[in-house]
Design a protein that fits this description.
- This protein is of the alpha/beta class.
- It has one domain: UDP N-Acetylglucosamine Acyltransferase, domain 1, CATH 2.160.10.10.
- The protein contains 1 helix and 21 strands.
- The protein has an 8-stranded mixed β-sheet with strand order 1-4-7-10-15-18-20-21. Strands 2-5-8-11-16-19 form a 6-stranded parallel β-sheet, with no helix packed on it. Strands 3-6-9-14-17 form a 5-stranded parallel β-sheet, with no helix packed on it.
- It is elongated, with a radius of gyration of 22 Å.
- The protein starts with a helix and ends with a strand.
Length: 201
Amino acid sequence: MRLPGPLVVFRSRLAALLGWPLRVAAPLRLRLARFLYEIWGRGQIRGRVEAGAQFIGVITVEGTRNVHIGAGTRVGRRTYLKTDGAGRIEIGRHVTINDGATIVAYQEVRIGDNTMIGEYVTIRDQNHGSRRGELVRSQPYDVAPVSIGSDAWLGRGVCVLRGVTVGDGAVVGANAVVTKDVSPYAVVGGVPARPLGVRKP
């Protein structure tokens, strides 16, 4: 059943009137929410979190929680960070980690300053063993450190595997699987990631 025209107009004006205080309070509400997220994030991390790091939403930190985050870094919603044993995650300054990223370190994952990590990127420094005749889940991990340089850009859905170094200024296209080192300022993409070009000066 359709409402009469005048009632629709009245409802619309009433919604605008009641919505105005919410719009005015929105910046304050956002600041308060980010402050609470920062308390939550810092409370989960055992490592160093420098002043100016921002947590945009709830994150999950598991394992030994040996995570270090530089000043000015922005950590998106639903980011998952895990370290195991002596593993360490080192995130530089002014890094952007977008929503849903996963970073797992059994040895070390290092991300340089001013790097951008897209939504749902996965960075892991370990793989399961896969010998025949033995359950995959019961085999020891094959571990090697991962290094992402400064001013690099990993597009949405990128997967970086153990032992890989992504050079300074490199660009990795969306949904690529990086199995080998990427040269500085190279542009790569695909599964597995292959060279597509270089960043122009």
